[in-house]
């Protein structure tokens, strides 16, 4: 059952999406609308397909052999189906960025990490680069901590800082959508709190879609929440409403911890 | 999904001069093309080599070629002494590497404590694997030929080559032992066996196919070795068959080298024919090794 | 220790019985000693090579000054008025190695990047054997190739090329060390974790950009180690240079000339008939010592570089 949504600007509209790994169907008839400049949380137990769904959106599933996405995912306002054959994954990934579960900075300096996406696109002007890097690091909540040592290797940072660096790296190219795949599950509580704080700032500029297996995180940080189970969307709605008054019994069971 | 069919939307979101996406895809595609070309260059070299050997030497391959001794007349020359010598030397090398290589692998895998001495041995093995083969010839020349007075004989050749390919056998045997499940040892110890008994009755028999693969790969390397054997004094013109371990000898690659060193075309044809035989031997040994490996994998029941 | 004897029965928490793994009798103990001996053999071999080379070189340097050895540009030890300058042989080795690596290193890295980044595991399975077959071909057959195929081929483009040349030998050697570089580099590239690649692709990079800007730099120590080992291998190569580059020591910087390398000289002397203990006999060991030193340096460098691989 899909709860009615208050009219907002639509960013991504997923329609009749089915996903297969070989012959095994992993996502079944997904229909979802994500609102612009809001944080949408995808939650559910392990194996429900939330990460698979996330990775469809920036076409990362193409890196896996035998992975097939069948359906439509329309990006607004360009009105383009992300999953169409003629769409260039490069073009998509320039507009939809991703942060991964385990922090994965490049073995380069912090500066070069954040500058990576910009350099790929051909930006050479030093001042421009520095401005954008500072902007991205500020949005990720890391600027104050590292502004004096940007040339040091990214690996000299702590885990939480590395993840914020990865967020800055993704934000530097000014994507329209940011996909977060369980961004804090490998981090300690303090780093987790840091990142959750920044989400409020980040969503002012970027639509955020976040996969999390942490119910409380979803409740704390997201505007909309989608509950998934066994490759299907069970329920979706305003986070406040969904957590206090879930419509579907399965959602309620998950929230109250009867399974997970 | 071909890059060429992408139709990127003509929506200009560039906030700074951007490198065209089409161009970046193009560069990536060219790189892929170049690397495949590089691979095919290797394939072409291989095919041209074999083709030339066949073209030049194919006619010379006859029963006479295999049964004749080398001769000053090119049409009469054959590789009898050469391939018999090769077989003898391979036999001696095989026996020695099995005995010494497997023993060394057993020690390193099962007995050696993790200290500086063991590390020294392992470093040495790595280093020896990267030594020019001719240096083994010099060692053999000084030690086996002159000091131990073994002369330029089959025995010396076998010993030299087994030293040369020892690292191959040691590494392969260690891998074979390492691949065995721990439960094999556990079960044996639980029944009260000593470490030695466990090795001899359980571990080595279980790892035997991996070890044999290693020995055969070592032989495929040794069969083509020329420099160390020339250095120990293997003669290039042998018109008799060795009858004892201490006899002089020649081997296929040396015969090849000898014929190639002469300016006459006819001897080059002989060289090509001998080269085909040598290549065949090398590929045969490799094929046997691969066959053993595949068969062993099928038979493993754990 | 107390002065009084403790009369309580001693109960030990750990069994003092010796492990049953220990050898049971003298036969087993002898075998275990044999195993250890075989393992130590590798150390003896290295020591043996070093000792023999030093022992036979020592008398040489009693008669020939190190200065002449290193600075003279003339190597003619078997003439009636002999000269013992190593430079021509060194140059021959270095020049042929340079040509071989100049071709094999870029080509090898190119192929390794292509294999690891652009090709799926399936295709890789079928293409790698090509490289591995090249690796298994005996060097004397490559010598045949260099003399009778490569030289005429180059001569058809540059007719002035002599029948023996360092160029032909170097070009042929490049195909001999190519498999080594490809296989070791590809191992290094494959060991870069997939997460790093994913991050690059997620930022909108092409496979070329990913391998060039991220994967290759990450694997740089492994790739450099591979190239150093390639150099070491080219330096020690014997048959190709002996057959195709000629055996005339020649102090030259021009690869389109015949010249002898250190290894070719050693083979040439070994083919001749030199009395044991003569100065000519000793030159083989002296040149061998030089070769050994160079090889040890490169092998050591490769090891040091590879150990710098960052644990990810």
Task: Summarize the structure in short.
Chain A has 260 residues and is α/β, with parallel strands linked by helices. Chain A has helices at residues 50-57, 89-95, 110-120, 126-139, 143-146, 159-171, 189-202, 215-221, 239-244, 249-255; strands at 10-21, 24-35, 39-43, 67-75, 80-81, 96-99, 177-181, 207-212, 224-229, 232-238.
Structure description:
The complex is a heterotrimer of chains A (260), B (302) and C (312). Chain A is an alpha/beta fold and 260 residues long. In chain A, 35% of the residues lie in helices and 26% in strands. Chain A is built from 10 helices and 10 strands. The longest helix of chain A is centred in the middle third of the chain and has 14 residues, at 126-139. Chain A is globular. The relative contact order of chain A is 0.19. The model of chain A has no long low-confidence stretch (mean pLDDT 89). With 302 residues, chain B is mostly helical. The two termini of chain B are 42 Å apart. In chain C, helix 11 packs antiparallel against helix 12 (279-306). Chain C is 70% helix and 1% strand. In chain C, strand 1 (75-76) and strand 2 (83-84) form a beta hairpin. Chain C is an all-alpha fold. Chain C contains 12 helices and 2 strands; from the N terminus they run ααββαααααααααα. Chains B and C meet through helix 1, helix 3, helix 4, helix 5 and helix 6 of B and helix 1, helix 3, helix 4, helix 5 and helix 8 of C.
């Amino acid at each position: 059952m899909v709860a009615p949504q208050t009219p907002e600007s639509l960013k991504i509209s997923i329609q009749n999406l089915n996903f297969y790994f070989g012959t095994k169907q992993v996502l079944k008839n997904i229909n979802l609308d994500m609102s612009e400049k809001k944080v949408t949380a995808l939650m559910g137990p392990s194996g429900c397909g939330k990460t698979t769904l996330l990775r469809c959106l920036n076409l990362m599933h193409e890196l896996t052999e035998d992975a097939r996405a069948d359906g439509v995912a329309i990006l607004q306002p360009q009105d383009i189906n992300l999953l169409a054959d003629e769409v260039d994954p490069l073009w998509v990934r320039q507009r939809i960025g991703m942060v991964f579960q385990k922090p994965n900075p490049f073995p380069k300096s912090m500066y070069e990490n954040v500058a990576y996406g910009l350099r790929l696109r051909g930006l050479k002007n030093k001042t421009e680069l520095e401005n954008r890097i500072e902007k991205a690091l500020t949005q990720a909540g890391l600027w104050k901590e590292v502004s004096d040592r940007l040339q040091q290797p990214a690996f000299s940072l702590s885990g939480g800082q590395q993840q914020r660096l990865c967020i800055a790296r993704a934000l530097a190219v000014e994507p329209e959508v940011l996909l977060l795949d369980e961004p804090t599950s490998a981090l300690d509580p303090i780093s987790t709190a840091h990142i959750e704080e920044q989400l409020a700032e980040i969503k002012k500029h970027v639509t955020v879609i976040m996969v999390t297996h942490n119910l409380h995180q979803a409740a704390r940080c997201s505007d909309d929440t989608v509950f998934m189970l066994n490759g299907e969307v069970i329920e979706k709605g305003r986070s406040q409403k969904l957590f206090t008054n879930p419509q579907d019994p399965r959602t309620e069971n998950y929230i109250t911890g009867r399974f997970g | 999904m071909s890059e060429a069919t992408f139709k990127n939307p003509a929506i200009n979101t560039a906030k700074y001069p951007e490198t065209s996406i089409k161009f970046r895809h193009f560069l990536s595609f060219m790189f892929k093309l170049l690397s495949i070309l590089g691979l095919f260059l290797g394939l072409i070299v291989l095919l041209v080599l074999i083709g030339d050997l066949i073209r030049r030497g194919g006619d010379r391959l006859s029963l006479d070629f295999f049964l004749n001794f080398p001769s000053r007349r090119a049409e009469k020359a054959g590789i009898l002494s050469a391939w018999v010598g090769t077989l003898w030397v391979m036999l001696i090398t095989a026996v020695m590497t099995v005995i010494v290589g497997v023993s060394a692998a057993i020690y390193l895998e099962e007995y050696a404590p993790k200290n500086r001495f063991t590390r020294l041995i392992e470093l040495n093995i790595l280093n020896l694997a990267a030594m020019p083969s001719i240096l083994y010839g010099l060692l053999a020349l000084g030690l086996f030929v002159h000091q131990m007075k073994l002369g330029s004989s089959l025995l010396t050749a076998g010993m030299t080559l087994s030293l040369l390919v020892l690292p191959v056998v040691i590494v392969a045997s260690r891998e074979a032992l390492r691949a065995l499940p721990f439960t094999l040892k556990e079960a044996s110890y639980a029944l009260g066996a000593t470490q030695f008994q466990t090795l001899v009755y359980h571990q080595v028999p279980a790892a035997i196919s991996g070890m044999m693969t290693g020995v055969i790969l070592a032989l495929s390397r040794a069969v083509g070795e020329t420099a160390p054997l020339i250095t120990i004094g293997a003669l290039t013109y042998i018109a008799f068959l060795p009858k004892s371990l201490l006899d002089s000898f020649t081997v296929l690659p040396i015969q090849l080298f000898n014929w190639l060193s002469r300016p006459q075309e006819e001897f080059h044809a002989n060289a090509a024919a001998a080269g085909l035989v040598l290549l065949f031997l090398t590929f045969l040994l490799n094929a046997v090794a691969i066959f053993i490996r595949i068969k062993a994998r099928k038979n493993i029941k754990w | 220790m107390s002065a009084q004897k403790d009369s309580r029965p001693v109960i030990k928490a750990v069994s003092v019985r010796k492990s049953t793994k220990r050898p049971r009798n003298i036969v087993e103990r002898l075998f275990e000693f044999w195993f250890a001996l075989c393992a130590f053999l590798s150390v003896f071999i290295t020591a043996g090579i070093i000792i023999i080379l030093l022992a036979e070189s020592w008398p040489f340097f009693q008669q020939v000054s190190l200065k002449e050895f290193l600075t003279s540009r003339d190597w003619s030890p078997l003439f009636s008025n002999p000269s013992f300058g190593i430079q021509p042989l060194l140059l021959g080795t270095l020049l042929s190695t340079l040509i071989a690596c100049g071709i094999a290193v870029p080509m090898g890295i190119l192929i390794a990047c292509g294999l690891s980044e652009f090709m799926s595991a399936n295709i890789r399975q079928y293409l790698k054997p090509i490289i591995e077959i090249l690796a298994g071909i005996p060097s004397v057959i490559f010598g045949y190739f260099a003399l009778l195929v490569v030289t005429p081929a180059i001569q058809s483009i540059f007719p002035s090329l002599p029948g023996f040349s360092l160029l032909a030998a170097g070009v042929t050697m490049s195909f001999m060390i190519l498999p080594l570089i490809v296989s070791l580099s590809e191992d290094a590239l494959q060991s870069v974790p997939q997460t790093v690649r994913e991050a690059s692709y997620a930022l909108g990079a092409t496979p070329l950009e990913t391998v060039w800007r991220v994967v290759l730099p990450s694997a740089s120590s492994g790739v450099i180690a591979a190239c150093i080992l390639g150099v070491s291998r080219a330096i020690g190569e014997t048959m190709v240079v002996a057959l195709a580059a000629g055996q005339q020591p020649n102090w030259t910087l021009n690869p389109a000339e015949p010249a002898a390398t250190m290894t070719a000289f050693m083979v040439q002397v070994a083919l001749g008939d030199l009395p044991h203990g003569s100065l000519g006999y000793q030159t083989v060991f002296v040149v061998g010592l030089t070769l050994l030193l160079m090889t040890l340096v490169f092998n050591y460098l490769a090891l040091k570089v590879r150990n710098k691989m960052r644990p990810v």
